[in-house]
Amino acid sequence: MLMTRGFYESESGQLLLAIIQSTDFKEQVEKIGGYQVVENAEPKCLGIEV
Question: What is the pTM (predicted TM-score) of this model?
Fold first, then answer.
């Protein structure tokens, strides 16, 4: 997932991360079929300031 630093650091960005990293969310995604849940990547700065 790609997001701006401003969004990542915002309350909304942190809430989105918490949701997609939750066990409940991952279980629901796996039930859809056709998707594979993988380990969460660490945030990385691309070195691009927007």
Answer: 0.68
